[in-house]
Amino acid sequence: MKRILLGIHSPWWKSLGGIEIFASEYVQRMDGIFHLDLLYRDDIRDVKILSFYDKHEGAMAIFPLKQAVVLNRVGTMDDNLYDVYVAILHELKPDVVHILHTMNVGVELIYAAVTLNIPIVYLVADFYPVCPSYNLLDASNTFCEIPETPAICNHCLATKLQLGNGQTPVIQMWRQEHLQAINAVTHLVFLSEDTRIWMLKAYPSLAEKPFSIIPFYFRTPEEGEEVRKESSAGRVDLVVVGYRAIQKGSALLDWLVPELTNRGLTVAFLGSEGSHWDWDDTVRDHCRFLGRYPAQEVVSRMIQLQPRAALLLSPWPETYMRTLDEVWQAGIPAIVLDIGAPAERIQMLGGGLILSRSTPQNWVTLIDHFVTDEAKELPIPNPPETQEYALVNRYVNLYDEVINQPSVMVEPTVPMFLSLIGEVTGQPSDYIARQNFVERVRPGTTVATAWKRSQPQSDDEVTRFYEISDAYLYDLINATQLLERRKWRYRVWEFLSRANLRLAPHLEYGCGIGVDAIFFSRQGMAVHAWDVAGLTGDFARRLATRLQAQVKFGTIGCDPLPNNFYGSATCFEVLEHVPDPLSVLRIIHNALIPDGWLFFTESFNLTGSDFPSHIPGRENWGESLDSVAPDLGFVSRGRLAHRIHIWQAQKT
Question: Which residues contact 555 (CB under 8 A, 6 or more apart)?
Fold first, then answer.
């Protein structure tokens, strides 16, 4: 049985926040699958370990420190704490160190695990690695959006924050310390793509770090679990869930609730008392204050209340917001701000209303209309991660990955790309570096120049160009490094994970140099990658071999695609290059199983001298392409990441 050590800032029996609840649920479900050790610090004088093995809780082990180390602090690594962590890890010999939060625990645990060559999984549960004000609310309690100027951050921290050692942190030192530690981590876990985007704004270099997006699980009330009955239970218009706090939107609710009650809407408050809100009786007459509740009862309480919608107006970019899942489980749509994972999930899955932070003057009207007319007809999502053991399976697979391949990168590096160009073309390294520099300075330059020089006309000539042009390699290398391009594959993977399609064969049509295919393969999918013959195919095969990725490659025009075989397919930036895009979509349709998913992008609008390889005359196709989906045997299901078309194959 593998052994996992969990590092957490506080255990669930000491305090009850999102991370603590997650840790409790994690132990309940993982105990018996793994031998678990919970490491935490709630005293400046020691480190505590509580072990769980085969459904039995072990004795508490206390490791004293030679000198006291404050809990939430800033500064250089503490050697005393580091030494104790090394001793603990050496004694326990865990297969993986899984850090749920570094607050109180400190980055010393990361360095101790690196010292003993133990793979590390690091959960980015909030923005503590970016700023000790972990929800990124500034001195005015407004989302700061991570200012580019450090002086702004330092002024904010000096105004609102002191840590456990009485110091006011300097943001440059804070980020340098945390980035160095996170760079040593084997694998990052984000709760949402939105969280990762904000982290990358602070730390762009983390784009190269292996990662997964694994949402929180939430506890479903057990069958027969006692639920208190409210004497005044019955339908209300809106429910506000959680205690009164700035990070939960109290400043917004202070002015919004009176406006809503003035429209005749009724509002229930789960988690706060009437004394927490400074409103007169004209407002209170439309409110119900139900006070605190046991965490396991929140879904049942909302079902009893039967609200038309839930107000979840967090002003910071929540990393996941488990409350949204609880609201959905109760069959209630949610109203959120256009920020963070809740907005991301509603945008992708539906189940709610997103309010623009830039137009608060419209909120009351929008909420009133939504509650009155739209909410009752709105379907509520049932995300796959809310199903029993979904999270367990993802972590089991993740641990296997980091244990078995702790040193293999998910994303290839630029030096690796340039080395492979040398292998497939035989070009000298100085020429390769120069060409790559030109492409990075002016994207698309190399392939545009080569195209104008060759001037291919017929279909065969175009195919031949892509087979032999080294310029196309430079173009593809730099395109696949773009943050937007990386976001595409991450978003597709997240979608497939939510839909429980990760075990179905996946087709990468027009795979180029194979980066996307390799990514999906590294996530455990059976990937088949198809493209034209020549340099790109040779490059893709060598890259997969270098990264130890299991990808089956095929050649378009030579190797037939199987019919009704793939559960999903991707086709990124291919259609604008081919004479008959609709025939490509038909080919993919034939290869997909019934209800299989196709994710594709197109750049029909980019033509002219800068994009000579994009066939002109179809500049407006992107706007109307979804309308022809039924003629091709598909149903359009919307978009991902703004540009990715989502089509589902319909077959009789």
Answer: 530, 531, 532, 533, 537
Under 8 Å between Cβ of 460 and 442: no
User: Residue 334, exposed/middle/buried by CB under 10 A (0-12, 13-18, 19+)?
Assistant: buried
User: What contacts 155, CB < 8 A, 6 or more positions away?
Assistant: 139
- Give the H or E element holding residue 304: helix 298-305
d(CA 469, CA 601) in angstroms, rounded, equals 23
CATH architecture of structural domain 238-386: 3-Layer(aba) Sandwich (3.40)
Gap between the Cα atoms of 416 and 436, Å rounded: 13
Instruction: Note the pLDDT tens digit of each residue in 31-78.
Output: 888 999 999 998 889 999 999 887 677 778 999 998 888 887 766 668
pLDDT digits (tens, 9 = 90+) for 204-228: 999 989 999 987 654 444 443 333 3
DSSP calls for 367-433: HHHIIIIIGGGPPPP--GGGSTTHHHHHHHHHHHHHHH-TT--SSPPHHHHHHHHHHHH---HHHHH
CATH number assigned to the domain covering 415-649: 3.40.50.150
Q: What is the pLDDT of residues 503-537, one digit of tens each?
A: 789 999 999 999 999 988 987 899 999 998 889 99
Give the amino acid at 298. V
Q: Report the 3 state secondary structure along 518-529.
A: HHHHHCCCCEEE
Fold of 3-213: Rossmann fold (3.40.50)
pTM summary value: 0.60
Smallest Cα–Cα separation from 473: which of 425, 516, 441?
425
